[in-house]
């Protein structure tokens, strides 16, 4: 079989997108912690912080297509290997934070600290352990709330061959594919809100699996545009400017516009060569992007622990903290995420992948080499 050639050589890693992951995680964190800041207003940008999850979803479709779509087309794609790599990437930290919230909840109950009564939701524990709690099986929020999006990601991973098949069939018309995905996203957002009575971008445990579908598809089609030819400098600047302006305007408008603008920003940043990306390709920025999954996943348990301790220390019974105390907690989240990344996330991922490689038969050596090339997927959820 003649290999399918990629039209343009592309870097294995897209460092500006790795840095963008941290910005998305920080956006969610600010949205989560803002109610604990003793101020009388909420900036519109902060109020839209839940859309950081949508940014993750679009990024996920883009990066996984970047890493796996060519192998899928050339029939070098190992579905089993793909799923194991995804499990190694997300499951250990999911378990760690799940049991961490369990320990914090039990400890808080024991010492008489006030916590949300729904955190220790024992009847939903099996769904959380199976990562299907955003598929409608949980019925209520519980445990580590942000993990609903990991359940949604797991749904997208399981169905990735469907996304890849559709994307590859549209590879010769990338802009048409991206436009169709954008229309699908906007139409689903409008239709869902009309039927459900609330925006799809606010769905978590009941409709989280559906929430990822249009974003993931949009990311896959944007990758087709990038794959055809990374944008030239003039087009890049125009697209980046348009994305920023649309995103700024959409802070006050419909969520779908923000998500579509975020996709354009992803496409623009992906088209910037690493050597010209400046700060976004710097070692600190890439490192923060690497720990962004930990930032996101420990956000809720860190809030339970740090905010309760700070409130007791400062006498803030309503858990609304002064600015410098609040800033210390937010910065502490990043430090705690770095510790979690080095002690839990990264070692567990390496151990699981190493175990899989040791079990792989020698006859599968070619597939092993293919998947070794695909390691940049480590940089995305």
TrEMBL record:
TM segment ranges: 20-37, 49-69, 90-115, 154-170, 175-192, 204-226, 238-271, 291-311, 323-344
Signal peptide coordinates: none
Listed name of the protein: Peptidoglycan/LPS O-acetylase OafA/YrhL
Entry-linked InterPro entries: Acyl_transf_3_dom, Acyltransferase_3
PANTHER family assigned to the protein according to its UniProt record, in alphabetical order: ACETYLTRANSFERASE, ACYL_TRANSF_3 DOMAIN-CONTAINING PROTEIN
Limits of the Acyltransferase domain: 18-340
UniProt keyword terms in alphabetical order: Membrane, Transmembrane, Transmembrane helix
């Amino acid at each position: 079989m003649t290999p399918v050639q990629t039209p343009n050589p592309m870097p294995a890693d897209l460092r500006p997108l790795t840095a963008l992951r941290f910005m998305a995680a920080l956006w969610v964190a600010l949205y989560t912690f803002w109610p604990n800041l003793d101020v009388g207003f909420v900036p519109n940008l902060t109020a839209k912080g839940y859309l950081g999850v949508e940014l993750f979803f679009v990024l996920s479709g883009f990066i996984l297509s970047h890493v796996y779509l060519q192998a899928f087309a050339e029939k070098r794609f190992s579905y089993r290997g793909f799923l194991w790599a995804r499990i190694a990437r997300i499951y250990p930290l999911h378990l760690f934070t799940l049991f961490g919230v369990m320990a914090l909840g039990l400890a808080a109950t024991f010492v008489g600290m006030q916590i949300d009564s729904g955190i220790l939701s024992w009847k939903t524990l099996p769904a959380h352990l199976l990562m299907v709690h955003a598929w409608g099986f949980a019925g209520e929020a519980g445990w580590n709330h942000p993990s609903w999006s990991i359940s949604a990601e797991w749904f997208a991973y399981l169905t990735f061959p469907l996304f890849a098949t559709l994307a590859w069939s549209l590879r010769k018309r990338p802009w048409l594919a991206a436009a169709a995905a954008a229309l699908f996203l906007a139409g689903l957002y409008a239709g869902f809100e009309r039927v459900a009575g609330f925006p799809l971008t606010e769905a978590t445990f009941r409709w989280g699996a559906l929430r990822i579908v249009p974003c993931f598809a949009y990311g896959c089609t944007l990758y087709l545009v990038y794959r055809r030819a990374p944008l030239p400098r003039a087009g890049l600047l125009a697209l980046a400017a348009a994305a920023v302006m649309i995103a700024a305007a959409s802070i006050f408008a419909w969520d779908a516009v923000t998500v579509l603008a975020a996709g354009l920003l992803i496409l623009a940043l992906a088209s910037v060569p690493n050597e010209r990306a400046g700060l976004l390709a710097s070692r600190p920025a890439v490192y923060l992007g690497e720990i962004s999954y930990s930032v996101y996943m420990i956000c809720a348990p860190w809030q339970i622990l740090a905010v309760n301790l700070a409130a007791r220390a400062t006498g803030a019974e309503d858990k609304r903290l002064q600015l410098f105390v609040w800033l210390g907690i937010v910065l502490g989240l990043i430090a705690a995420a770095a510790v979690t990344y080095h002690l839990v996330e990264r070692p567990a991922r390496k151990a699981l992948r190493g175990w899989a490689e040791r079990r792989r038969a020698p006859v599968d050596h070619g597939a092993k080499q293919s998947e070794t090339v695909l390691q940049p997927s480590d940089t995305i959820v």
